[in-house]
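Entry 14. Structure prediction run on the chain below.
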Amino acid sequence: MTASAPPLLPAPRRSRYDAWRRRVLDDATLLGRWEWLTPVLVTMLAAVLRLWNLGHPHTLVFDETYYVKDAWSQWMLGFASTWPDGADERFAAGETDIFTGEGSFVVHPPLGKYLIGLGMWLFGPESSFGWRISAALAGTACVLVLYLLARTLTGSFVFAGVAAGLLAIDGLGIVMSRVSLLDIFLTLFTLLAVWFAVRDRQSYFPRLRERADATAARAALSPDRGPVLWARPWVVAAGVAAGAACAVKWSGVWVLAAIGLWLVITDALERRRLGLPWWALDAVRQGVVAFILLVPVALAVYLASWAGWFATDGGYQRHAVEADTASGVFGWLPLSLQSLWRYHETIYNSMAQMSTAHSYMSPAWQWPLLVRPTSMYAASTADGQNGCASASGCLDILYSMPNPIVWWASIVALIWLVYRFALHRDWRHALVLVAVAATWLPWLAFPERTVFQFYTVVMYPFLLLGLVFALREIAGAPTQSRERRQSGQRVVLVFLGVAVVLAVFWYPLWSAIQIPYEFYRLHNWLPGWV
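Output returned:
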């Protein structure tokens, strides 16, 4: 008799998820396609959510009453002009040339208003789409830059797509891109400045190590000072972007300062790690170079944003300092620069004392709690009017509310990131923490000043980066067991699924879609909301 063949063991079961993962991630060609498709698709999604029905409502909402009219008069005259009483309604009705020609006192630099004015010049000042197109494009660009920054930090297009995707569908990013305020421009330039600083680290540190090796070889014979490198174009680019941020709002100066400190401290730590004998002194010498590359170009960009004010005579305090009154520590400067300095003193005094009560004001210490988001616009409609079919009436609202679950999760992730950095000293975690500190902590120094929750749009991309680092930890590393990774990835997918569902639930309130009051009330989760 011949021996029978041994019974075949059943093949291990593989889930549909495993099959999909092998098909997508193990196919190099398909993987390459997803690497460039991901930023394209996420950016297109952001554009659709920000550009759809952008011209609604056709009225100046919230602080558009300042920035839109100032932007147009500045575009036409070179400086912001005052407007007559009742100008908002007349401007929205198409009377866009009723500015007085007299210089208006404005507390923010001109660059953001020039960007708003560019959209109005392209599409017409009477078009509410034209008022907001520049903000919408800037908000869309923020999503793409966040993807590039996250891709650089994580090395993963998947998690970079998660970070950018969460910003693309988030209410704070959407609403601040659909109203013509300055904060979204500040966000874009801040993101660019931080990304450029990271790119500098990528190019500078390898060259520093190469030069340090040569220094170490010479030090075997006699101690030698470490290298000082001038060829750092990404630092210059960061200075341009940070200068542009300052030219939108003065709070950009904290970003400039944070990047400068980041460059000096990370350089010093790397030199010490490389064992250079004079690392502290060398870091000071390199820090001087970094200052020269970073700060003057930022100052030049800032001053260039005032070109229209310099080139004309009608701007506010344009001739505050005349030849017979020039004196003081800046007496050696041209009279125009002395007048600009006098104007800046006026701005600073005004902003430092800005404590007017507002129903939507929210001090900076409240921001992590999401106590009082800002309603930019609200209009009610009675049943039977303008398509409203609700017995209790309908509402159009623009509410700058971030996705609640994503916001609170990002705050928890930020706390976790502090803990992780204390244990592992990961420079990427440090970068996120420094960026959040630069865009949030300075506001804590002004507890009495009138500030709003929507100011957090500048720090929100960095909170999302912290959240992505936490989600990546939950998803598991390749060295961990298959079961651990599967369970972690399911948790991440469930979280992202809930975030998408909530985005759909909140989107009508982020885009001024007419909704019944019953649906509106479903969003009143906390007493300070809507």
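The beta strands are 375-381, 394-399, 515-516.
Filed with the rest of this week's runs.
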